[in-house]
Specification:
Layout lengths: L9 E4 L21 H14 L4 E9 L4 E12 L2 E10 L7 E8 L4 E4 L4 E2 L10 H14 L1 H13 L4 H12 L11 H9 L11 H12 L4 H16 L3
Antiparallel strand pairs: 1-2, 2-3, 3-4, 4-5, 5-6, 5-7
Helix pairs in contact: 1-2, 5-6, 6-7
Length: 238
């Protein structure tokens, strides 16, 4: 992935720039979380677990209320690196959540293993950010090995051309994947005419990378949402 692209409705920011986005004032029932505070707590929580961040990038909504981010971690597997996805919203539109993912070295594509897992019920006045992050990172770390095994399984799973076309059909025509339908041609072309030799084998792994390559063209927020659903979609094929 070429980074979180900033288009209409979202801005790409560095970790330092997040500090200028101040959260709204808390109420009796809602406790906003500063985006910079959240990121710092996650990085500290990872450090406590001896996991280093080697790359991070963030996108916020136009009003600054929603945050999506990716932290690439030092840990990984052959040809890919584990990533952590984070989201936050101070407008009550969604819960604070974390998800584990991977980034492929050769094409710099990123996908999440599954949808964002809420790390708390709501931004309540009794919410303790450090405790919530500790719970979320524990869930994330427990997904490392299952994700590695799943990716290895995808690399070994051969597909006929008809099977690949059926999966693409299910994703976009039948709507099993929450992603814009206009990407169907791009996914087809990236799979059957791959840019990199690593994805010449006709496998589920090559097909997942065709999807992630196509999703790179989306704006940051829909890109995050679609890549978070992608892992679930492919896991359901097993």
């Amino acid at each position: 992935m070429e980074g979180l692209m900033a288009h209409a409705g979202a801005d790409k920011l560095t970790r330092e720039q997040l500090g200028v986005i101040l959260p709204p004032e808390p109420t009796d029932t809602f406790k906003p979380i500063g985006h910079a505070d959240l990121v710092q707590q996650v990085i500290e929580g990872l450090s406590f677990r001896h996991i280093n961040v080697v790359r991070d990038e963030y996108a916020v909504s136009e009003d600054g209320m929603k945050l999506f981010g990716v932290m690439d971690l030092e840990a990984g597997m052959d040809g890919a690196r584990y990533s952590l996805g984070i989201r936050n919203a101070n407008d009550k539109s969604m819960r604070l959540g974390l998800t584990v993912g991977y980034r492929v070295f050769v094409c710099d594509n990123m996908a999440f293993h599954g949808d964002f897992t809420p790390v708390l019920a709501k931004h309540s006045k009794h919410f303790v950010l450090a405790d919530a992050i500790d719970i979320g990172l524990g869930r994330m770390q427990r997904n490392f090995e299952p994700m590695r095994k799943q990716i290895e399984g995808w690399r070994q799973s051969q597909l006929t051309d008809d099977q690949a076309k059926l999966i693409i059909y299910r994703a976009f025509v039948e709507g099993d994947l929450e992603a814009p339908k206009h990407l169907v041609r791009a996914v087809h072309d990236h799979y059957f005419d791959p840019q990199y030799p690593e994805f010449q084998p006709r496998t589920i792994w090559s097909l997942t990378n065709a999807f992630t390559t196509a999703l790179k063209t989306l704006d940051p927020v829909p890109q995050f949402k679609a890549t978070a659903k992608l892992g679930q979609f492919f896991a359901a094929l097993n």
